[in-house]
Amino acid sequence: MGANLESKVVIVTGGGRGIGRAIADACAEEGAKVVVADRGLALDGSSPDPAVAEEAASAIRAQGGEALAVTESVAVKAGADAIIDAAISEWGRLDGVVCCAGILRHRPFLELTESDFDAVIATHLKGHFLMYQAALSRMVQQGSGGSLIGISSGYVLGDPARTPYRAAKAGIVALTKSVAMAGAEHKVRANVISPIADTRMTQASQLPIKMPPEDVAPMAVYLLSDRAAGISGEVYGVSGTSIAIWEDPHERRSIRNPVRWTQDGIDANMAWLRAGVPDRQPPVPPLPETAQPIAEPDG
Predict the structure, then answer these.
(1) Helix, strand, coil % (nearest 5) of the chain?
(2) pTM of the entire structure?
(3) What is the mean pLDDT of residues 217-230?
(4) What is the C-alpha separation between 116 and 154, in angstroms, rounded?
(5) 297 has a pLDDT exceeding 90
(6) Catalytic residue among 155, 165, 222, 236
(7) Is the separation of the CB atoms in 197 and 215 below 8 Å?
(8) Poorest-confidence range of 93-107, 122-136, 147-161, 277-291?
(9) Which of 29, 276, 282, 296 is most buried by its number of CB atoms within 10 A?
C-alpha cells in the first residue's frame, strides 16, 4: 500500500462498480478510509442491489484497508446528507469526495420522456450538487480544507441518443468550477475528471473502448492528495495512460459593426467568422497534441 492519502477519509459515490470501484480501491491502497456509496442500480436506474456496495467495501477490508458501505441515493438531499454523515460517524472527518454515481437512459432524442430526462439529471447533475454542498459544508466546519472531484465523461460532445447524459455532464463542469470558487477561501478545491474507460455505460452504448477503469484511478488519487493542494477549477481528461488538461470554451474570433447588424450584414460576414469551423460537428474531437511524460511513472 502507498501513503499518499494516509489518514484521509474519502467518499466515492458509485464506488461499487466501474470507474468508481477502481477509484475506491486505489484510495484504500493509498491509505484512505473509504466510504463506498452505491445503490447497486441497474444501468437505467432500476433494481437496487445493496450487495454491490458491501462487496466492494468487503474487498477493501480483506486487503487490510478500512471501508464502509452506504446505499443511500445521491439524487435526494436526505441521501447525500446521510452519506456524508456516515463518514463523519465512522471516522470523525471528511477529506475528499469523488462523484461517480450515474445512470443512463439510452434513447433517441424524439423518444425521450420527461421522466428519462429528470432521472438522469437527478442522478448526475443534481447528485453532484447535493454531494458537493453537503461535503463543502462539513469541510468548512472542519477548517482543514478538502478535495471534491466530479466525473464528466464526454461533456464536449453532443449525442442525440444520450441527450440528458451529455447535458448533465456539461452542467457538472460549470457546477464544479462554481464550487471551486466557493471553496477557495476555505482551502476546498474542486476539479473534474473526464475519463474514457471500458464500463457498463460504454458497453451498453457499443463504444469500442478497451481502456480499463483502473487507468483513471491514479489521477483521482492525485487530485485528492496534498500534492494537488494548488489545483482547483480544472478539467482533466484521462484516457488509458494519457492525461490531458482541457481548456475552457473561449472566443475563436469576433467582428464589431459600428451600427446594429442587418441580416445581409451578418450573412456577408459569416464565412469569415466561421472560417475553420466544420459545417457539422465531427463524431469525435480532433486528437490533441500529446507529449511524453517528463519522467517515467513510479513502478
Answers:
(1) 40, 15, 45
(2) 0.90
(3) 98
(4) 19
(5) no
(6) 165
(7) yes
(8) 277-291
(9) 29
β-strand pairing of 9-13 with 96-99: parallel
Residues 6+ positions from 145 with CB-CB distance below 8 Å: 139, 186, 187, 188, 189, 229
Q: What was the pLDDT predicted at 1? A: 63
C-alpha cell at 200: 457498463
* 165 is known as an active-site residue: yes
pLDDT band for position 202 (50/70/90)? Answer: low
Nearest to 124 by CA among 22, 201, 211: 201
What is the amino acid identity at position 85? D
Burial 262-293 (b: 16+ CB within 10 A, else e): eeeeeeeeeeeeeeeeeeeeeeeeeeeeeeee
Residue 209 C-alpha cell reads as 473502448
